[in-house]
Design goal:
heterodimer, A: alpha/beta, 5 helices, globular, B: about 375 residues, mainly alpha, Leucine-rich Repeat Variant, 21 helices, elongated
């Protein structure tokens, strides 16, 4: 079973995504901020990171950069969850090391499909 | 005297004690109420999240059957979720709200005496995209409270009914109107069905209204209005409106925009308009504009030359080649002219070099992002 690290400060979205991915047969570790995410990655490396961009204390972009700089293996996908869909926002995320984007508002079904597709690409 | 002082102290002590007790009672009451609400909301909230996570396929009837007090406690979470979801999950949640009579209740609240209730009702109707609420929401565009007007216009944008276009435009022509940026984005959200109304409003007597409509047409990509926007660029009496026309012709990006934009670059035109037209030519992105823009690189107005150089950069290969040609020609001139010529570099070459440098940085960033 693949492990997904979900980093999201909104409790409703955290609960919703955990439930949807859990129902899709994935093991989800949900944390509310970037600091907890960095700690979690060191103790239990995930197979994929689902990262909110706008968070308190540390933005998703900063977390992504930190993860890519050390603790996270390079082949582990990072999918950003963001309400900003301008090309420059997406480019900023890709430059920080993100592999894909899901734009809010999102469809839970589409999110699961994107996660599964990213995991399948790594498995190939 | 001492007795009076003692009595005053006693009264003061009683007042302090009563105030402290009052504060404690209010806080405890609030906490108890909050805890009760959280307890009541827990089960519906869980059911709600499971429902949307399953794309609104299962559990709709259970949500409709939740008792009113529990639903009221969970409703803020449900409303917050509406804005975060799309697709089947969003539609499923909307149908639950409609079946529970939320839209009906919100329609009634639009006439509440409380501005908070009016604004909240408008937001709910917008989030639920209730089309039949459009006439009532349009009436809120003249609400005496600015906050209510802003929420109403946002709600109309979410509903996206072009029938609201004229009412939104009319609301701009009043004291303390809604912010221009919000108005143009909302009008654009109404879709191409609003194009005819927006185009007609370009003849509105208020310059601010004309500028907002131009921005909305640009955001919409209303290419059918290029001729009317071009006429405004040529004939409008207000400089800000003409600048808005130039900017939005660039956004519309059709070849028929080239001629009016080139016309607006003439030296007799105001600098702000010429700079906007040069920038817009870059947005159109047509290589046919390259010779015109190259001629502007040496313009006396810094802003015009600067915009021309960056417009050439944004045009792509043809524009970049032209910029390189300018730099190369300058180098040849310097080599031929000796040491003195090196010191006196032309304005055109300076602007071209700056634009090329930025093109290089952006290209490096794109390569880095693709890795």
């Amino acid at each position: 079973m693949s492990t997904i690290l979900l980093v999201e400060d909104d409790p409703d979205i955290r609960h919703l995504v955990s439930y949807r991915l859990g129902k899709g047969g994935l093991d989800v570790i949900a944390v509310p901020d970037g600091i907890s995410a960095l700690r979690e990655v060191r103790t239990r490396p995930p197979d994929l990171v689902l990262l909110d961009v706008r968070m308190p204390r540390m933005s998703g972009i900063e977390v992504c950069r930190e993860l890519r700089a050390g603790p996270l293996p390079a082949d582990v996908p990072i999918i950003m969850l963001t309400a900003r869909s301008r090309p420059q926002d997406l480019e900023q995320g890709y430059a920080a090391g993100a592999t894909d984007y899901v734009v809010k508002p999102f469809s839970p079904r589409e999110l699961l499909e994107r996660v599964e597709a990213a995991l399948a690409r790594v498995a190939r | 005297m001492l007795a009076l002082f003692t009595a005053l102290i006693a009264i003061l002590a009683v007042v302090v004690a009563v105030t402290a007790a009052g504060i404690i009672v209010v806080r405890v009451t609030r906490r108890v109420r909050e805890a009760k609400r959280t307890r009541l909301a827990a089960a519906p909230r869980k059911a709600l999240l499971a429902f949307v996570a399953d794309n609104g396929e299962e559990g709709g009837d259970d949500l409709v059957a939740i008792p009113d007090d529990a639903w009221r406690a969970a409703e803020p979470h449900a409303l917050a979720l509406l804005g975060k979801l799309r697709g089947e999950a969003h539609l499923g949640l909307v149908s639950v709200f409609l079946r529970r009579g939320t839209a009906r209740a919100a329609l009634g609240q639009l006439r509440s005496r409380s501005p908070i209730k009016r604004a909240r009702a408008a937001q709910v109707l917008g989030d639920l995209e209730v089309r039949r609420a459009v006439p009532d929401l349009c009436q809120l565009l003249t609400d005496r409270r600015g906050e209510v007007r802003v929420v109403a216009v946002r709600a109309l944008g979410r509903i996206g009914d072009p029938a609201a276009a004229w009412r939104i435009i009319s609301s701009l022509d009043q004291p303390d109107p809604i912010p221009a940026l919000l108005a143009s984005h909302t009008l654009a959200q109404l879709g191409l069905g609003a194009e005819v109304t927006l185009s007609a409003a370009l003849d509105h007597p208020q310059a601010r209204v004309r500028a907002v409509c131009l921005d909305a047409l640009g955001l919409l990509g209303a290419t059918g209005s290029v001729d009317r926007v071009s006429r405004i660029l040529r004939e409008d009496t207000h400089l800000d409106v003409r600048v808005a026309a130039a900017v939005n012709l660039g956004k519309l990006g059709t070849r028929s925009a080239l001629e009016p934009l080139t016309h607006a670059l003439r030296e007799s035109r105001p600098t702000a308009l010429r700079a906007a037209a040069a920038r817009a030519l870059g947005d159109v992105g047509a290589p046919a504009a390259v010779p015109t823009l190259v001629n502007l690189l040496g313009d006396d107005a810094f802003q015009v030359a600067h915009e021309a150089a960056h417009a050439l950069r944004r045009i792509g290969p043809a524009g970049l080649e032209a910029l390189r040609d300018v730099v190369t020609a300058e180098q040849s001139r310097a080599e031929a002219g000796g040491a003195g010529a090196h010191a006196q570099r032309s304005t055109a070459a300076c602007h071209a070099e700056e634009a090329l440098a930025l093109a290089g940085v952006l290209s490096d960033e794109r390569v880095g992002a693709a890795r």
